[in-house]
Predict the structure.
Amino acid sequence: MPDAGVDRPGAAGRTVLIAGATSAAGVAVAAALAGAGATVLAVGSNEERLERVLAVAPDASVYVCDLADPAQVAALAASVHADHGPIDALVHLVGGWRGGGGLAGQSDQDWDFLHERVLTTLRNTTRAFNADLLASSAGRLAIVSSVSVDAPTPGGANYASAKAAAETWTRAVGHGFAKSGDTTAAVIFAVRALEGLESRLAAEVVALWDSPADALNNTRHILTP
């Protein structure tokens, strides 16, 4: 049976899960996707902060989940499938900054925090929803990385390493997409700082369906003011 969304233009009608939806970027992306006609599924670790999403996208569905916990992510996937069926896109916005102090200041605590937030949450969510994205007529995975990957400094070594690992994981997912066909794409957006670029990022996410997947897959886009 053909995918019901195959003839729909752009993001309209797509079911998009935003991981880390309570940040300023997450709220902006949710608002833009809802305005474009997508079904928004907003995931965060704090129920109260998820109200920010509902303020701009009242029809969004919100889910509380610790995305670093594989068991909770598996339960999230089961709930999403029961409520909405398979998703068409995963937008991963979970992150955070820890750093400074030169190489000697790169603490184990900071590394553990960044590894969990940046990489583990990405690993868990992509594994849980990979089959959905592959089955979609226009599956999309998008992450936000950092230009520090290109020019890491001693004081940002932990952060740049975690972001580099996330980019590598995303490219691996993208290679899997390419082997399975030409309808699904993994895209990396890189920024120096996300503050002030939330609306730009939101527009870029909505535009992910304006280009064919094979032209987008495993591409990296640097967003500047």
